[in-house]
Design goal:
The chain is an alpha/beta fold. Helices cover 31% and strands 22% of the residues.
Amino acid sequence: MRLRNIPGATEEIAQSKYCIHDAQQYKGNWSNFWGNNHPIHIEVGMGKGQFIMDLAKLHPDINYIGIEKYSSVLLRGLQKMEIEPLDNVRFIRMDAEYICDFFGENDVDRIYLNFSDPWPKDRHARRRLTSHQFLERYDTFLISDGHIEFKTDNDGLFQFSLDEANESETWHIDAHTWDLHNDQAMCEGNVMTEYEKKFSEMGHPIHKMILSRS
């Protein structure tokens, strides 16, 4: 899907108090930014931010960071925050490829990957957020008992993700389902993303996988 460029989005993001503009300085010590020692959960590829904001409302004792590459998409999240500010949510505009520049050892307690770009061409496999290259990145900053939650409606991406995890010596699949909304155990407490609601209403089954260290 082609993203529509919104004039002025970059400038609005640069001025927003809900974006972390100097995030690299907090690598290894994010408590200095938050002013507390609450767990930190991140969503890589947060889109318009509805999922992470809904989680933040449910869990005020957790700090949430939404990461988004595209300014025009991130702007929508900022507009939501202007309407309903949340103290435990902040955003970073960046390419996930450079995520290790922002988070150090034990900085993050949980990672959410929701409806990520499938990068369907084989030559782009390393760009998929569940590729072994990205799993190696997450390993450098996720706490030892932390885990990754991944949701998608894309069959090919989900099978690829299962294969990458199964081939890993570091990661273990704790649970997975090809039809989340008809899996009572895995759907308990599920918070839907905007894409999830849209795709499920179209009759697409939602797939989910939870990973932890082996």
